[in-house]
Amino acid sequence: xxxxMAITMGDAAGIGPEIISKTLSLDDVYEMCRPLxxxxxxxxxxxxxxxxxxxxxxxxxxxxxxxxxxGTIDVLSLENIDVNRLVMGKPQSMAGRxxxxxxxxxxxxxxRGEVDAVVTAPLNKEAMxxxxxxxxxxxxxxxxxxxxxxxxxxxxxxxxxVVHVTTHVALKEVPYLITKKRVLDKIRIAVGAARSLGxxxxxxxxxxxxxHSGEGGLFGREEIEEIIPAITEAQGLGIAVDGPIPADTxxxxxxxxxxxxxxxxYHDQGHIPVKLQGFRYEEGSELMESVSxxxxxxxxxxxxTSVDHGTAYGKAGRKEGTANPQSLIDAIKVAVKMVETxxxxxx
Length: 347
Hints:
This protein has 347 residues and is of the alpha/beta class. The chain folds into 2 domains: 196 residues, Isopropylmalate Dehydrogenase; 150 residues, 3-Layer(aba) Sandwich (Isopropylmalate Dehydrogenase). 39% of the residues lie in helices and 20% in strands. The protein is built from 12 helices and 14 strands. It has a 12-stranded mixed beta sheet with strand order 3-4-2-1-5-14-13-6-7-10-8-9, sandwiched between helices. Strands 11-12 form a two-stranded antiparallel ribbon. A hairpin with a 6-residue loop joins strand 11 and strand 12. Helix 1 crosses helix 3 and helix 4 crosses helix 6. It is globular and about 60 Å long.
């Protein structure tokens, strides 16, 4: 049977409903999975309207009631958006609270085995905080819900896969968080992540933190005191890992096929190369001609993938329906691949 995907609607004031509508208008999606939207039927109706699509929104109470057929979007509706009060393109507590509730519901369903994976549309941190949820994003929320401290973010675009040692922290705090234990933990998680995508013997590259990986201590000692000891221990465990490799070359090598996954030291160090690989801006317009890339939360007891972009408030609700759904399509494909790989390993 095709895997069942719980697709969370994200922030109703953003582009989530629109890109979900566009994604679920495609035959290819229904050929590879059974998509179930966890959201609000009213907001999804607005998304279909903005996308100018001929689709039927169908409210269901349970996954077993869904049709999973192209032309109909099955929505497990939490009825938590008043579309008459919703202001598109602006953070607001109603939408922030609702977006968190979608994630919590989908994650609980995944942990009970009712769905095979969770795929999330974008939420907004400011709106979440306005609603009383002080999280930096999906990753931290899901880690707390699953009661796991050993987790990480992985981004994918094309052949490039990147796992982060640190994510949503101020840059000045990063050096203090680069410890041998943390780096070694992320190396192990990176190996597991690559295997979950079908790579039998992952080759891992470790990015340096400082320019030229510290140049033997001239530009910082984190490589000498923390990163290299972690690499040495990982190699002793039989892991194929190289580094630290300067950040200005390691991603080029990985994108070219030299490595299967890169461990980056901080948020922007890993995000920039992935988005350069997956995003393409069309000169002379406000449109992204390509918005590919996937965010995966590793270390959870269930599979979770996500778009690699935000709520795009500037595009949300515009009558021309310009939001690009490619990242969501890619996130579903990655989730399906991970479900299939897990199923083979269990057999």
